[in-house]
């Protein structure tokens, strides 16, 4: 079935900067077409400066009766104060990646953490309960991933970030929420990461490093144990420098595409109330990335 724009078509989309690389439009539009829904997904570049741009963009969701919106870098945390309501999970995470327009009431949700956990289990069989995890990054995506990892009962977590203060804030905030886990902020430094790697079960990159056009994460994986899984939420390219290093070392890897598809599927279900056509979404995302459907 082909997407048809009519007088009844409703709009959803994504607010972020950059958004040009996003495969969410291809993924969601393929799902809307497959189910014959009168919806279209549009990317909107919403810049961080000057102040007020995000607020105006969020007001437009209501003014234009859009069905909802995805929120991405760099707005996942800042968008919270622009919304009417934020569900309990997104409030606790401190970041929103999905907005629902419920009859003029804008509600913030977060599907990143659940999408991450589902895809990690599917692709690698790993569940973080009782495990030791090293998280790189302390932004909005890190919050969602870290929250879900802690909620599933990981034993010990290190958070490494370029801006160490942010890692410390995150460690202390989530440390008081999840008292059973030991959470510690460390410097994002090659030697320090190496020192903390010997007993790690899961290393996950939540920063934009490794994305096409950005720099690479300069860490060594040589001290990770053989059982360790290396995970990257970056999906463009599918195999980041980090994942390549892990593969060459013979470690199990988990790429960002499966998380993207899983979080997108949960968002799709929130927006439409319909079961997401996962395979259609995965195929469209892969095609948009220039890959082949495996
Ligand atoms: P998102 O919502 O996608 O997580 P974000 O909140 O802006 O986006 O967070 C981006 C993350 O990538 C942060 O951890 C950021 O580190 P800082 O807190 O120090 O800014 C990290 N990041 C981005 N560019 C980076 C770079 N060149 N080197 C190291 N870390 C980087």
Describe the structure.
The protein is an alpha/beta fold and 294 residues long. The chain has 2 domains: 10-110 and 258-289, Rossmann fold (3-Layer(aba) Sandwich), CATH 3.40.50; 113-254, Rossmann fold (3-Layer(aba) Sandwich). 37% of the residues lie in helices and 20% in strands. It is built from 10 helices and 12 strands. The strands form 2 sheets. A 6-stranded mixed sheet has the order 2-1-3-5-6-4, sandwiched between helices. α8 (241-248) links the parallel β11 (229-232) and β12 (252-254). The longest helix is centred in the C-terminal third of the chain and has 17 residues, at 256-272. It is globular, with a radius of gyration of 19 Å. The chain starts with 9 loop residues before the first strand and ends in a 6-residue tail after the last helix. The model has no long low-confidence stretch (mean pLDDT 95). Bound molecules: 2'-monophosphoadenosine-5'-diphosphate. 2'-monophosphoadenosine-5'-diphosphate (ATR) binds at residues 73-74, 76, 137-142, 161-163, 166, 207-209, 215.
How would you briefly describe this protein structure?
By secondary structure, the protein is of the alpha/beta class. The chain folds into two domains: 10-110 and 258-289, Rossmann fold (3-Layer(aba) Sandwich), CATH 3.40.50; 113-254, NAD(P)-binding Rossmann-like Domain (Rossmann fold, 3-Layer(aba) Sandwich), CATH 3.40.50.
List the helices and strands and how they pair.
Blueprint: E1 10-16, H1 24-35, E2 39-45, H2 53-63, E3 68-71, E4 85-86, H3 88-93, E5 98-102, E6 105-109, H4 112-124, E7 132-136, H5 140-151, E8 156-161, H6 164-177, E9 182-187, H7 190-195, E10 202-205, E11 229-232, H8 241-248, E12 252-254, H9 256-272, H10 278-288
Parallel strand pairs: 1-2, 1-3, 4-6, 7-8, 7-10, 8-9, 10-11, 11-12
Antiparallel strand pairs: 3-5, 5-6
């Amino acid at each position: 079935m082909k997407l048809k724009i009519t007088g009844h078509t409703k709009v959803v989309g994504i607010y972020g900067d950059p958004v040009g690389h996003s495969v969410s439009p291809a993924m969601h539009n393929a799902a809307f077409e497959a189910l014959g829904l009168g919806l279209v997904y549009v990317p909107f570049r919403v810049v961080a400066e000057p102040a007020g741009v995000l607020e105006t963009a969020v007001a437009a969701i209501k003014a234009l009766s859009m069905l909802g919106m995805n929120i991405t870098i760099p707005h996942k945390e800042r968008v919270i104060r622009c919304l009417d309501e934020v569900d309990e999970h997104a409030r606790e995470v401190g970041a929103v990646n999905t907005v629902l327009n419920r009859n003029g009431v804008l509600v913030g949700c977060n599907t990143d953490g659940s999408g991450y956990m589902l895809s990690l289990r599917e692709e690698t069989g790993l569940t973080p309960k009782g495990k030791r995890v090293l998280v790189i990054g302390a932004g909005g995506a890190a919050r969602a991933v870290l929250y879900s990892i802690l909620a599933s009962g990981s034993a010990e977590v290190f958070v490494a970030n370029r801006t160490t203060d942010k890692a410390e804030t995150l460690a202390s905030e989530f440390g008081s929420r999840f008292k059973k886990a030991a959470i510690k902020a460390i410097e994002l430094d090659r030697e320090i990461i190496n020192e903390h790697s010997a007993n790690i079960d899961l290393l996950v990159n939540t920063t934009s490093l490794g994305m096409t056009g950005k720099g690479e994460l300069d860490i060594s994986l040589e001290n990770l144990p053989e059982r360790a899984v290396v995970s990257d939420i970056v999906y463009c390219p599918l195999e980041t420098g980090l994942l390549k290093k892990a593969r060459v070392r013979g470690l199990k890897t988990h790429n960002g595409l499966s998380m993207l598809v899983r979080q997108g599927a949960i968002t799709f279900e929130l927006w439409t109330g319909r079961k997401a056509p996962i395979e259609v979404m995965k195929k469209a995302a892969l095609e948009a990335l220039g890959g082949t459907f495996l």
